[in-house]
Amino acid sequence: MQHPVDGRAWKNFDTKYPDFAAEPRNVRLGLAANGFNPFGNLSQSYSMRLVILTTYNLPLWLCMKESSFMLMLLIPGPKSPGKDIDVYLRSLIDDLKDL
């Protein structure tokens, strides 16, 4: 297992944006989304979609620890948002740009 920052995609990003990579105070974030059925009845069509943000500037043992995850969104609904998840993420993206 390797730290996400050591992956090929991050190395490509560092090559493309060397000024960002050279500044250690810049924050590297990972966004993850997952869905679950909150009532435990898989035949039920109701689902919940959660969006989690984690900081990759931390060591591996800390950035993948549950206490380091930041819950950004809970998207409830009768079904998964699918391709329309961008509507829910718009406000989060705007806040991250301000940050």
UniProtKB/TrEMBL annotation:
Domain of life: Eukaryota
Protein known as: Uncharacterized protein
Organism lineage: Eukaryota, Viridiplantae, Streptophyta, Embryophyta, Tracheophyta
Species in which this protein is naturally found: Tanacetum coccineum
One Pfam family from the record: Transposase_21
